[in-house]
Amino acid sequence: MTKKNKILNPLDCYFLVHVYPDLFLHEQLTRWLMSLGVKQNQWRTWPCKDRNNQCSYNAALKWLLRSRPDYDNWVICDCDIQPHEAHMGEFWGSPADIVGVRYQTETHYAFDRPDMVHSALWRTNRRAMQAIYDEFGTWFEWEFNADQTKTTACLCKSLVVKARKLGLSIEQGGYAMHIPRKGIAGAGSLTRHG
User: Domains in the chain: how many in total?
Assistant: First the structure.
């Protein structure tokens, strides 16, 4: 980036945290939200009530479009992400429509492309999500092989592919720790990469 970008003020964002049925929030995530000065009416948890997390992710975005007209910028994350503000300058400074932090995943190639983001911690804006919805009717979908016997890509890829098709800008920015919780009854996996 050659020109200086305007830094997005976290207090101009609405925060939505995907949680398991037990409503667990990682302590580091809670500390991060508090350090930003996020107000009580500026964030909420979104319990994953369907074993297919794409349903929860899509329902949350639909709710944001309908129910939070007072915010044009959104930060969306999983309950087990562990951000630290010292590593988030690029996250807040990027002018992209969709910005996602980098974090360790089960695959070494998850962030190989500079415009590939994953859903454990990302931010976006109303205009971009409305454009994707208007064109495609949904944001997240798992990708499977032809006979539906193997997952070939994580649900995050569908969001990125749709955004690319519409010419929306996508960037990686910032770093966080992410240790997905496994084996929570009734939750399915909130974060799977492939």
Answer: 1
Q: Domain span at residue 53?
A: 12-126+169-178
Tell me what the pLDDT averaged over the chain comes to: 87
Cα separation, 33 vs 43, whole angstroms: 9
* Model pLDDT for residues 83-122, shown as the tens digit of each residue: 988 999 999 999 999 999 999 887 777 888 888 999 999 9
Residue 53 is predicted with a pLDDT of 85
Phi-psi group of 166: left, alpha or beta (phi > 0 → left; psi -120 to 50 → alpha; rest → beta) = alpha
- Give Cα 190 distance to the centre of its chain: 11
In a domain? residue 162: no
Q: Are 92 and 8 in contact (CB under 8 A)?
A: yes
3-state secondary structure of 87: helix
Characterize the bridge pairing of strands 98-102 and 170-178: parallel
